[in-house]
Amino acid sequence: MLVNVVGGLGELAKDPPNRMLVRKAGGIPPLVNLLTGTNQALLVNVTRAVGQCAEEQENMAYVNFACNSDQEISIINFLRCLKF
Question: What is the pLDDT along the chain (84 residues), one digit of tens a residue?
C-alpha cells in the first residue's frame, strides 16, 4: 500500500501548488527517509516524489535538511541528474 501512496504523492507533486502542500504538510522528511529502504518499487516512487518536490527551490532546502550528512551529497546529486 505504501508504494501506491507514495506513487500518488509523486503524481500530485507534478503540479507546483501541490509541491508546496507536500512541504507544508511535513511530507518531505518522511519521503527522504524512505530512500534508505530496499523495496525497489517503493524506491522508484519515492525517488519520483522527492524529485518532483525538489523542483521547487524552497523544497530543496527541506530535502537537504532531511538528509543526514552521509546521504545528502549522493541524494542531491542524484536528484539533479534525474529526468522524468
Answer: 899 999 999 999 999 999 999 999 999 888 988 888 888 899 899 999 999 998 888 888 888 777 665 555 455 555 555 554
Residue 7, C-alpha cell as written in the block:
506513487
So where are the chain's domains?
Answer: 17-29+39-84
